[in-house]
Amino acid sequence: MDMTGSRRIEAPRERVWEALNDPAVLQASIPGCESVERTGPDSFAAKVSVRIGPMSAKFGGKVTLSNINPPAGYTITGEGQGGAMGFARGGADVALVEEGPSTTTLNYNVKAQVGGKMAQLGARLVDSTARQMADQFFDRFAAQLAPAPGTDTMAATDTMTVPPTPTKQSAMQGRTAPPAASGGLGAMLAAIPREPYGLPINLWIGGVLMLGVLGLLFVIG
Known about the structure:
By secondary structure, the protein is α+β, with helices and mostly antiparallel strands. It folds into two domains: 2-145, Alpha-D-Glucose-1,6-Bisphosphate, Chain A, domain 4 (2-Layer Sandwich); 151-172 and 180-220. The protein is built from eight helices and seven strands; from the N terminus they run E-H-H-E-E-E-E-E-E-H-H-H-H-H-H. It has helices at 13-20, 23-29, 117-120, 123-145, 151-156, 166-172, 183-191, 201-220; strands spanning 2-9, 33-40, 43-52, 55-69, 73-81, 87-100, 103-115. A seven-stranded antiparallel β-sheet has the order 1-7-6-5-4-3-2. Helix 2 (23-29) crosses helix 4. The longest helix is centred in the middle third of the chain and has 23 residues, at 123-145.
């Protein structure tokens, strides 16, 4: 089975390289992956649940990296055993091409061999499943490297003026500012605008908290 392709990823090449060598990112990106562990400087062990047509099995495999040229690419070789379902072995050349400060093209060339009951299912079904898994992997991988939602929107609001509604204006008329608390902290609190760029302060606080939660999810994932 041979498979070649490329995927455009909206992230700097150095960041893509780091993610390709991060067990946590790989585990979250590989469909059906139960674990990815680093067993050496250039080797990993993984457990993956795979379903091909009517058959399903859990594979335990070992992967070794060679021809390492950071952050341009490497060669990955490995073998997985799926019990009665059979085995899979092969390798792939992975190359990262820098298209811009925040854009990278990932090119891959895969050559693999399957045996046992998997081989009896037919090359077309095996190839189709492999391509589906590759598409799912790159979708998940790219999503983990994408900027946190809301970053661009918040940046755009810096240049956008939102006029207050008549209701807000009438509510603000005649309102006297509360006396500033004594001390440095009180002066700092008094200096914070209540509606930065026309949006309520609680909306800004909620956006910052949401970005923090998404960041934690990316790290944990």
